[in-house]
Amino acid sequence: MGPAGVTVVIVRDDLVRDATRRWAALPCPLVLDYKVFADAHSMYNTPPTWSIYLCGLVFDWLRNDVGGLEAMAELNLRKSGAVYNAIDSSNGFYRCPYSRPCAPG
To answer: What are all long-range contacts of 11-17, with beta carbons under 8 Å and residues at least 24 apart?
Structure first.
């Protein structure tokens, strides 16, 4: 959905707890404690602004030009079907290491 290194985390409020209290026997680095990020409104460290901007462009493209997640899923199924059909019709030149039920299409 964006450049390498971008991480989007969606966590319900009731699941965000103070990891240092909950897991006192197991120390948790602050960078992995989602409560720290929630308390800082996702600004615990310097956000990668360029990467966030690019993700926004991708989200806009996905919603406005592609037609949403369902349309993208359909497009991806058609593309993967074309790849698997090319593999199947290559007379063994290409091989698929997966059984057909695992392959889309």
So the answer is: 11/38, 13/38
Q: Are 77 and 104 in contact (CB under 8 A)?
A: yes
- CA dist., res. 7 & res. 52, Å (int): 10
pTM, full prediction: 0.61
Phi, psi torsion values for 27, nearest 5 degrees: -65, 140
Query: What's the CA gap between 58 and 88, in Å, rounded?
Result: 33
CB under 8 Å to 65, separation ≥6 — which residues? none
First to last CA, the chain: 23
| Residue pLDDT tens, the chain, 105 long | 788 878 888 887 777 776 556 666 677 777 777 888 888 887 887 778 899 899 999 999 999 999 999 999 999 999 988 988 999 999 999 988 877 665 555
